[in-house]
Amino acid sequence: MIVDSRAVDRVLAPASAGELAEMMRSETGTIAPVGAGTELSLGNPLEPIDAAIDTRRLDRITEYVPADLTIHVESGVRLGQLAGALAEHGQMLPIDPWNGPEATIGGVVATNAQGPLRAVGTVRDWIIGMQVVDAGGRASKTGGRVVKNVSGYDLAKLYTGSLGSLAVISEISFKLRAAFAATASARLRPGGLAEAADVIREIRSGPLEPVSLVWAGPEDPFVAVRFGEHPRAVEWQLDRLPGEGWERFDAETESAVWDAVRDRYRALAEPVVRVAAPPSEARAVIERFRPESWLVHAANGTILMTAGVDAIARLRERHPTLVERAPREVRLQAGVFGLTGAEYDLMRRVKTAFDPEGRLNPGRHVDGERPA
Amino acid sequence: MKPEVIDKLRDIVGADGATDDAAELLVYECDALTLFKNSPDVVVFPADTEQVAAVVRLANEYGIPFLPRGAGTGLSGGALALEGGIIIELQQLNRILSVDAENRTAVVQPGVVNLHLSQAVAHLGLYYAPDPSSQVACSIGGNVAENAGGPHCLKYGMTTNHVLEVEAVAADGTVVRLGSKTGERIGYDMVGALVGSEGTFAIVTEITVRLLKKPQSVKTLLAAFRSVEDSSRAVSDVIAAGIVPAALEFVDRRTTEAVEASVYAAGYPLDAAASLLIEIDGFEVAVEDTQASIVDVCRRNNAFEVRLARSEAERARLWMGRKGAFGAMGRISPDMITMDAVIPRTRLPEVLTAIERLSEQHAMPVANVFHAGDGNLHPLILYDGRDADQVERIHALGEAIMEVCVGVGGALSGEHGIGVEKKDFMCMIFNDDDLAAMRRAKGVFNPDGLLNPGKVFPSRPSCSEVGPGVTRTAEAARRIDEYVRGAGEARA
Ligand SMILES: Cc1cc2nc3c(=O)[nH]c(=O)nc-3n(C[C@H](O)[C@H](O)[C@H](O)COP(=O)(O)OP(=O)(O)OC[C@H]3O[C@@H](n4cnc5c(N)ncnc54)[C@H](O)[C@@H]3O)c2cc1C
To answer: pTM for this structure?
Structure first.
């Protein structure tokens, strides 16, 4: 198996949380947890790995109580499998990461993967509990099985987005919501940056509450919006989109819009960075950097765009910026996270506290870079 | 405490910025959990982040325990100075620093009162969603520490879903900024770890929160039922219908009696065994429909009255009863303990019956008023603090109630936190390995443990030792089973 261009000879595939813990206990070298392998080059370049833990056999939905709006799943469950089970009961987990239905839920959580539904939140908002196994093979849990819980520290927040650097996730509990009663989408081909930015500002400042709002460019630019709600509320919002020239798509046809958005994400020219700029500043960032390609989560401001090492440094002067998808050299030169000072120090301490010997995905997280 | 420490504290915060006057310290002996008391040696009132950091550094230098305090409305003893030392009172840091209407965010100091923020941004059509029932008094810093919720977190999430960025003074006095203005987490989610850490990780000195647009339309209705079972089934059926109410609150008969006899009288029907206060919000064109579905669900579950608030005044009145319920208990009982636990909402009927049985067994009245939509119970144990025997019995009853909740797969706390109140119950849910992982996180932020000592973790070194709050024993498992099964049978 190849993980972030590292060949790994030994691949362990536990079929239960117990087996996972046992395997981890007998390992003494470095370990890379791996799900479906859709996001393996996220993070700083990996150091040599002795064994990979393939979670795909941890594929059971251990409990689903539709009436409680909760589900408990092993980390190797595929997103598509999960969505299918929920759809049978008219429920959903409102996340739609770029890597699609093949991705394992453990991988999605470990990478904090996002997609167009970014406008309604990220996966962290839906996690109510977690079970993990640390590098020494010690299993532990955090949170619980009910929709609201402040018993003890919320360690699930630390494990979410930790890129497998703190522990291997074995089981996750989610709260759920009812599926959107109706959905519809619309797409606009704006004349220029100003028109796009104005339309987005008007959507954001008015009464509309899109569940997705994406702006892509510069080639073949478009603004895509999706509403998910009571059918009349969806209609009402569509009718109030600002500006002219919106092409409408109903629930049957809207996947064309969002498939195209997904393609656009995949086609973003590397290196791709994730810039945390407030929504009102998206246009300014784009005008200043003129990226070769971009895709903006316009509702909350996250900008995905092409940026080289110099641009990354300049972006970071104003906005926290993550290197999302880039060749090894760029990740090495720029550092994936670009954190500084006390924040960086605290994160280093997190890594040391949870994985004192540095055996889990070594080099991948903040341990792989110097403070910027 | 050495007089030189007080002098040095005064050098930092000014002569008026500290007090060690015994009479003044009385206020700081406890938070709203008045069952546990201990006086700090000194209370300081810093005016800015720098002063907070300087106080923390001084405390470190002398090895003195210290802890932050907001408005002191906490219900788990989080702001209790268990080992004396310095209380750092943050109410002077009470400014809203900026509001960014376009990006819908606000930057506030920790001492800002929760409700004041919503009031300050109301003219922009915005509000701050987390709305603990104590929102007229509690501070946003305290909310961050406890990950506070409220009636509307059913739809809108808890404090943790609304905090984007924080500035904090770490336990060693370092000032650190965590998170980002858009909520995007780059690196570990340190903000996520800090929210809900009960004042044991760091002292939060500035918070960037997300603001929401005020909903176009809000409908509030009250449905009254002759049996608790009917009301519980209505709760489940609302959720099953795919409706996400903005709030779904439960008020039992005992609470209704207290409320209706108090200044919070809201016109709740006195002959109801249980009433549900249901709120929906959203687009004008949709809420009518949703409201009709809810009325329908309630009627099908034998609601004998469904009343819709027809004006803002009527709506406010319905809510006044709910929000004033804790205060109203003073009418029927000299003292009260507000418990907090979460159960899967489908287990409501049997758990409420079990609580009723326990209340009878222990001869202590319990009232129930809580967030039914997410199964977040608040059994209120009514007692007389002057009666030592009653005080003794509270603990046994409290523990028995927690065992029932945990026994059906629930949680120790939905919003009030563990603090000192429930630290010895932690072993009901967590084992030594779970707690070891939590200690690792605490060690990152607060390695020497000087910040807010004695909280969250059980007092005995290991959960495998026998002691209060260990439900893993066969005996306890049997007892829980009995309550729950007994409750089920009683219902049948
Ligand atoms: C009548 C009543 C109703 C209530 N209803 C609700 C409810 O609906 N939902 C709910 O969640 N809670 C509720 N509470 C509990 C309480 O109001 C909340 O826990 C609130 O968040 C506490 O805020 P505070 O400012 O009073 O904090 P305090 O009680 O002063 O402190 C609470 C904890 O926070 C820490 N802390 C305070 N400020 C900071 C800071 N700046 N940085 C780090 N740590 C800090 C303290 O050390 C302590 O551990 C209620 C309480 C009462 C009395």
So the answer is: 0.96
Neighbours of B247 (CB within 10 A): 25
Specify the 3-state DSSP secondary structure of B411.
strand
The protein residue with its alpha carbon nearest to ligand 1, atom 18, reads B74
For residue B243, the chain A residues in CB contact (below 8 A) are 178
B103 shares a domain with B57: no
- Chain-centre distance of CA B124, in angstroms? 28
Q: Is B184 helix (H, G, I), strand (E, B) or coil?
A: coil
In angstroms, rounded to a whole number, what is the distance separating the alpha carbons of residues B454 and B456?
A: 7
> Closest residue of A to B436, CA-based?
A140
Residues A368 and A304 in one domain: no
Mean pLDDT, consecutive 10-residue stretches, chain A (372 aa), reads 87 96 96 84 92 96 94 97 97 94 95 93 96 97 96 98 97 96 97 96 96 97 96 97 96 96 96 97 98 96 97 97 95 96 97 98 95 82
Residue B166, domain extent: 96-213
Among residues B161, B191, B213, the one where a domain terminates is B213
> What's the token pair of residue B92?
């002077």
Count Cβ neighbours within 10 Å for each residue of B136-155 and write b for 16 or more, e otherwise: eebbbbbbbbbbbbbbbbbb
CATH classification of the domain holding B339: 3.30.70.2740
Q: Whose CA is nearest to atom 44 of ligand 1?
A: B199
The protein residue with its alpha carbon nearest to ligand 1, atom 49, reads: B78
Most A CBs within 10 A among B182, B248, B439, B451, hence the mutation to make, goes to B182
The reply to whether A146 and A4 lie within a common domain is yes
DSSP code at position B139 = B
CATH of the domain at B74: 3.30.43.10
Q: How many domains does chain B have?
A: 4
Q: Under a CB-based contact definition with an 8 Å cutoff, are residues A358 and A367 in contact?
A: yes
Rounded to the nearest angstrom, the minimum Cα separation between B10 and chain A is 28
User: Looking at the domain assignment, is residue A47 inside a domain?
Assistant: yes
Structural domain for A366, as ranges = 1-178+339-372
Phi, psi of B338 (to 5 degrees): -95, 110
